[in-house]
User: What shape does this take?
Amino acid sequence: MADSGLSIGQVAQRTGLSVHTLRLYEREGLLASEVRRDGSGRRVYSAWDVEWLVNCVKFRASGMPLSTIGQLAQLVREGSGNEAERLELLRDHRRHIIERLKQLRDCLELIDGKVASYEQHLSAGGSGDPWQQQPRPAPEEHTGCGPSLVGRT
Assistant: This one.
């Protein structure tokens, strides 16, 4: 089947997406090209389809909504002439990722501080409560680690 394309099962294995998800992506217009069918009506995916789907996996992992992937896929299906729109979608999502990375760095700093506090606490014999010994950020300094992390061990 390598010369004629890949089956839905093969694409699922290569992308990590389930067969159900692949069908959903097709139904929702998230693919950048029409999926061909063989003489028996089975889906036949191209290398380009697999490449697009691998990108979609990364887009989703980065928090890109399915609706945005759909918009991008539609623009790609339309062909050249809309590159500025594609660029703007990608720039918008890039800004989202940069903001999320800032939030995650702040969260990592909190966790690193707590780890250091507990390590010091345990190496000193474990007296007192290490959570109480490390200053907590003021509420206005909270930047997205989630309220469930503030004030809890």
